[in-house]
From TrEMBL:
The lineage of its organism: Bacteria, Pseudomonadati, Pseudomonadota, Gammaproteobacteria, Lysobacterales. GO terms for cellular component: plasma membrane. One of its GO terms (molecular function) is threonine-phosphate decarboxylase activity. InterPro entries: Cobalamin_biosynth_CobD/CbiB (IPR004485). Belongs to the CobD/CbiB family. One of its GO terms (biological process) is cobalamin biosynthetic process. Its main location: membrane. It is found in: Cell membrane. Signal peptide: none annotated. It is a multi-pass membrane protein. Keywords: Cell membrane, Cobalamin biosynthesis, Membrane, Transmembrane, Transmembrane helix. This is Cobalamin biosynthesis protein CobD.
Length: 311
């Protein structure tokens, strides 16, 4: 019951407050991780492993120790603190806060503004994107970050409590900072990328299931099965393939990175991306949140019934 209650409270806080505009813990962690990188960077895999441990594990242990100490004195306060931690770890509302300006700019046919807005949420070059490519990039971002910013944190919270949610989001942040195949990060960032892949493996597939349940299930399952494995990321592929199929849109294809156009596999099937596909992706994630909460509350009710039956 407590996990369902804390998750509901955290998501309600996120819906009402959004991300903190000042003093967000992840911003502070990013600075800490930058300092760790400057101190420990070397072109070796082991350097990346050590840097990851130094950056992440003290924070996770501090959160776990604090909650354990508070719980011994006040379980209710510990639950409230867990809700705050989970609220800071999830970013459901931020998906809409970042995607809606893109959709609004496209609706008003302000392509430069749409390119600027989508550039805040994707790593590809945006200056040469046309309206369809901007909409596709935004739709892909919403679907992929439904896992990274919402469902992954919820999964690890249910499994390991607030420290699990913190572990997941910090690992995800380091993947975004270090997990690139560039000369600087090819070896140093290997651990950050692989650890994120491991932590995301189960949440990504549960996210894909949620997308299928909340959209066109037949098409979502088909796209997941036939296209998910073609994507370079073992987790983003199933998530985006199922999500694209669920909302009947065709994603992937050519995209510019670092001055060069890269041909990517097609994900999904149906219409070309537009404003409607961005908003459909946001609705799909929102429905997925309701499904996850319903499953948590159902599980809590079953456990409570089993406990009373054995009492």
């Amino acid at each position: 019951m407590s996990a369902a209650l804390v998750a509901t409270a955290a998501l309600l806080a996120d819906a009402g407050l959004g991300e903190p505009q000042r003093l967000h813990p992840l911003v502070g962690f990013g600075r800490w991780a930058g300092a760790v990188e400057r101190a420990l960077h070397a072109d070796r895999h082991m350097a990346g492993v050590i840097a990851w441990c130094v950056a992440v594990l003290p924070v996770v242990c501090l959160v776990g120790w604090t909650l354990h100490a508070v719980s011994a004195r006040s379980p209710g306060l510990a639950l409230a603190m867990s809700a705050v931690v989970l609220y800071l770890a999830v970013g459901h509302r931020s998906l809409s806060d970042h995607a809606q300006p893109i959709a609004s700019a496209l609706e008003s046919q302000d392509l430069p503004a749409a390119r600027t807005a989508v550039g805040r949420v994707v790593s590809r070059d945006t200056a040469a994107l046309d309206a369809t490519q901007v909409a596709g990039a935004a739709t892909e971002s919403v679907l992929e970050n439904g896992c990274d910013a919402v469902f992954g944190a919820l999964f690890w919270f249910v499994l390991l409590g607030a420290p699990g949610a913190v572990l997941y989001r910090l690992a995800n942040t380091l993947d975004a900072m270090w997990g690139y195949r560039t000369p600087r990060y090819a070896r140093f960032g290997w651990a950050a990328a692989r650890i994120d892949d491991v932590l995301n493996y189960v949440p990504a597939r549960l996210t894909a299931v949620a997308y299928a349940v909340c959209g066109d299930a037949r098409r979502a399952w088909h796209c997941w099965r036939t296209q998910g494995h073609t994507w370079k990321s073992p987790n983003a592929g199933p998530v985006m393939a199922a999500g694209a199929g669920a909302i009947s849109v065709r994603l992937g294809g050519a995209a510019p990175y670092h001055g060069n156009w890269s041909e990517r596999p097609v994900l999904g099937e149906g219409a070309t991306p537009d404003v409607a596909s961005i908003r459909a992706a946001l609705r799909l994630v929102r429905r997925g949140v309701f499904v996850w909460l319903a499953v948590l509350w159902l599980g809590a009710a079953i456990l409570a019934w089993m406990g009373s039956a054995h009492a």
